[in-house]
């Protein structure tokens, strides 16, 4: 699996006029032995791509729900290397693309070249590093490029039009459009200016644009998804899995689009 698997996923969705639904989960929350089942449950539910978080002691972009999940995983002794080795063991059971979301420190501790090699062996399609600026991504991106693994970039609400063009011009995998000024977690709603912002990004981006942070209801997911190529939901899914309610994801009845069929159950 590589970034080309992710490109195929977006192409299939576009051909059917559907939007991507990307589900974030914390690797090792509940133990790494449960990881394969969790991903298969999400796949069965109609999730397009899984964003797999790596537990870290200083998760500056994470809200309270995901921070708590990270602490639980760290208490289980979960490491970046252990996650990649487990993914490699179970990759034959997984059909949808998997994207790793890690902070820079665990990657540097493992070594960027070793990380890229293990990610390739694990079938990883892309990597998200929220604390690595665009100007400093080469140290991480070059080893990933050797294995055709997408280095996924962020665009924020404060990004200038020039910055957006710079980031999206050579983007791969998808562009992660951050919907709030702050960390992840449940929000009551979004300012109307967000939707114009997302539309402006999609107009100039050479890669699909998916929006995340704070999306917590079906209505929010549908409205945000209408302005871009897909949505990313984390805290709600993390909580469902922690509460032992995986059946609320795996028993989803397919509806018209991937976005509709996933959100209709996750946000009940």
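^ structure tokens above, recovered residues below v
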């Amino acid at each position: 699996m590589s970034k080309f698997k992710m490109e195929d996923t977006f192409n299939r969705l576009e051909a059917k006029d559907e939007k991507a639904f990307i589900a974030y989960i914390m690797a090792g929350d509940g133990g790494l032995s449960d990881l394969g089942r969790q991903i298969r449950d999400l796949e069965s539910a109609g999730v397009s791509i899984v964003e797999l978080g790596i537990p870290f002691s200083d998760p500056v972009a994470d809200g309270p729900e995901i921070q708590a999940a990270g602490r639980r995983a760290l208490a289980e002794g979960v490491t970046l290397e252990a996650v990649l080795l487990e993914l490699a063991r179970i990759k034959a059971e997984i059909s949808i693309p998997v994207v790793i979301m890690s902070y820079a420190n665990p990657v540097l501790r493992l070594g960027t070249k070793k990380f890229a090699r293990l990610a390739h062996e694990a079938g990883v399609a892309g990597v998200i590093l929220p604390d690595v600026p665009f100007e400093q991504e080469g140290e991480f991106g070059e080893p990933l490029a050797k294995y055709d693994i997408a280095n996924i970039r962020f665009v924020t609400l404060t990004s200038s039009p020039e910055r957006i063009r710079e980031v999206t011009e050579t983007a791969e995998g998808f562009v992660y459009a951050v919907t709030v000024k702050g960390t992840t977690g449940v929000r009551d709603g979004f300012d109307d200016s967000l939707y114009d912002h997302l539309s402006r990004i999609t107009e100039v981006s050479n890669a699909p644009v998916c929006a995340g942070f704070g999306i917590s209801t079906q209505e929010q997911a549908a409205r945000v998804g209408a302005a871009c190529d897909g949505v990313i939901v984390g805290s709600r899914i993390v909580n469902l899995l922690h509460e032992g309610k995986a059946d609320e994801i795996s028993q989803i009845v397919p509806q018209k689009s991937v976005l509709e069929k996933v959100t209709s159950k996750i946000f009940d």
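Confidence is low (pLDDT under 50) at residues 250-256.
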